[in-house]
Specification:
Number of domains: 1
Largest sheet: 8 strands, antiparallel, barrel
Order of helices and strands: HHEEEEEEEE
Length: about 180
């Protein structure tokens, strides 16, 4: 009974919240291309793995400073002399958005914050890999009306290899999307 009362109280509080508070929450979708590479490899012939990145985001507090949590599918890894080694993650960046965020005008913004990843697929790695990854995201973007363009760099902070070589992810992303 107590849980039902608490649930009802929360529902009433949410429904009674002022409309201006709801107007301060936005979101959207974005997709693009990753240029990913791992550091720590012994291979002299290492190259970028070009992959897909796509996800959803939510922006709160629509002022000069805003929180922007995201859920993103990120295709990462590297090209080696023996072939392409893949690491595909579900990433959850928790970003601080700095700059104007007017929905119906042009705006420029910066992004910075941590990203937490869960490995969903790995192929062609000799050593076993960790299921989780942590990175630091730095980026910038621009919106025109409801359309956005964004560039970002994610530096892996954690060694994802369980073997003798310390591998870390490095990802440069170009994305476009729509703001709701």
């Amino acid at each position: 009974m107590k849980k039902q009362l608490i649930s009802c109280a929360i529902l009433v509080a949410v429904l009674a919240a002022p409309a201006t508070a709801w107007a301060q929450v936005g979101g959207g979708i974005k997709a693009g291309t990753n240029f990913a590479r791992v550091t720590g490899a012994d291979d002299d012939d290492i190259g970028d793995r070009i992959g897909f990145v796509a996800g959803l985001f939510l922006t709160t507090n629509q002022g000069l400073f805003a929180a922007q949590p995201e859920v993103v599918l990120s295709m990462q890894g590297s090209k080696f002399s023996f072939g392409t080694a893949t690491l595909d993650y579900i990433q959850v960046p928790i970003l601080l958005r700095i700059g104007s965020s007017a929905k119906n005008k042009a705006s420029i913004y910066g992004l910075v914050g941590p990203s937490f990843g869960l490995l969903v697929q790995d192929e062609n790695w000799d050593d076993p890999v960790e299921r989780g990854d942590v990175g630091l995201v730095v980026g910038a973007g621009v919106t025109f009306s409801r359309v956005l363009a964004e560039v970002r760099y994610t530096a892996g902070l954690r060694d994802f290899s369980k073997g003798s070589t310390a591998y870390k992810n490095r990802v440069f992303s170009l994305m476009g999307g729509f703001v709701f």
